[in-house]
Specification:
By secondary structure, this protein is mainly α. It is built from eleven helices and four strands; from the N terminus they run E-H-E-H-H-H-H-H-H-H-H-H-E-E-H.
Length: 404
């Protein structure tokens, strides 16, 4: 897909610091491209190739799952990666299908941030800077979790293979559906390279995609924080006593309040569009991740390998972090929206002229409508996140009792 040149500048150069951080990874994968980018066709081919590779490997995983059906241990070991890749592929196809809407969401976030920067004072710029630092720290932590998990799995497979050869233990089979013959381990080098390639493609797109979507949510939170600040510090635009304002100052105050009302309305509409783009994937996570976490807990409980337990813990941490990112920031958007009417109340509203009070009354009435993001019927909140963790543990205990 291509982004409009008028709001995306030269390669690796974005005026919007939030966009700069969240689009770099997707550009490297080959999804987001601008007209000025060098080797554009080559990058497009790379994105298609990576996506096709993930799809082919995921089909292989389902074939392997069918082959081991009935073996609970092998099924749970397979399900963790299979489900993660499936949800990632569905997200990619959803992006391709709705690329125009995603483009518009990115463009609106860019324009909204530029408008804030044009009229921001020092404190408002600090709010933006703090959110940029926040998303960078969040990205670093999430990438570390993903890299440690994926590379540990690759290294452990190599250790298992050479350990099995030296101790004449049962050979570790990888990609059984690609190499079903008895002498499959003779092709271990080719099999391992395929696994390594797919693992690195997966650990590229999974963190990049989730950081991309969470960055859009962080933009909404940042804009709401700026709006709360502007409402709470309205008197910074005029005299200490509102009766001392001249006609020009009064009109300036009214324009500021109208601007806040328009900004609030725009953020509410943007959040609804973002919710529409997110809800399918988040609802899928709501259904799938309980099973995925259950599978990882079961695998960690039955293995005798300390290294495998460490890998499972890292995997569980990464999967839990993905869920937490969405539900926490949706909860933050809801919280910041609820603060708007309180920010108006903390200003000197009782000293305002009647013409100004009418605008503030309109604002308060509109802000009383809760801004809650939902994945269809499932509210995106910390309560739902905790409910998913509880369900995962319940499924795990039931599975453990059934196997015992």
């Amino acid at each position: 897909m291509e982004l409009k040149e008028e709001w995306i500048q030269e390669d690796e150069t974005f005026e919007n610091p939030l966009l700069q951080w969240m689009l770099t990874g997707l550009k490297f994968y080959g999804i987001v491209l601008n007209k000025s980018q060098r080797w554009k066709t080559l990058n497009q081919v790379r994105g298609v190739w990576f996506t096709a590779s993930l799809l082919a490997f995921n089909v292989t995983q389902y074939v392997d799952l069918y082959q081991v059906w009935g073996n609970v241990g092998a099924m749970t070991a397979n399900a963790s990666t299979t489900l993660l890749f499936s949800t990632t592929i569905i997200r990619l196809f959803h992006f391709y299908w709705n690329r125009t809407r995603f483009n518009d969401a990115i463009r609106q976030a860019d324009e909204g941030t530029q408008q804030i920067l044009q009229k921001a004072n020092t404190d408002q710029r600090l709010i933006l800077a703090d959110n940029v630092k926040y998303i960078k720290r969040l990205t670093a932590v999430f990438w570390i979790c993903a890299l440690v998990t994926a590379n540990s799995m690759c290294v452990y497979s190599l250790i298992q293979y050479f350990g099995a050869q030296s101790k004449e233990l049962a050979k570790v089979t990888i990609l059984r559906s690609w190499y079903p013959a008895e002498n499959a381990m003779e092709h271990f080098a080719a099999i391992y390279c395929i696994q390594l390639y797919i693992m690195y493609v997966g650990q590229l797109i999974v963190p990049c995609w989730h950081v991309f979507m969470v960055s859009l949510m962080v933009y909404v939170r940042m804009a709401l924080m700026v709006l709360n600040y502007k409402l709470e510090h309205l008197r910074g635009t005029g005299a200490k006593q509102w009766k001392d304002l001249d006609e020009k100052g009064l009109l300036s105050l009214q324009d500021t309040i109208v601007e806040c009302i328009q900004m609030q309305h725009g953020l509410y509409e943007y959040t609804r569009e973002l919710e529409s783009l997110l809800r399918g994937a988040v609802f899928m996570d709501f259904v799938v991740f309980s099973v995925l976490l259950c599978a990882l807990l079961f695998e960690a409980s039955v293995t005798s390998s300390t290294v495998q337990v460490f890998i499972d813990i890292c995997y569980i941490t990464t999967m839990t972090a993905i869920l937490f990112l969405y539900y926490w920031h949706a909860n933050e958007i809801h919280h910041q929206a609820n603060l708007l009417s309180g920010s108006v109340f903390r200003s000197d509203w009782y000293n305002y002229p009647r013409s100004v009070s009418r605008h503030l009354l309109t604002f308060i009435c509109y802000s009383n409508k809760p801004l809650t993001m939902k994945a269809f019927i499932v509210p995106m909140s910390l309560d739902t996140f905790i409910a998913i963790l509880r369900a995962s543990y319940s499924y795990f205990t039931i599975l453990k009792q059934a196997t015992n």
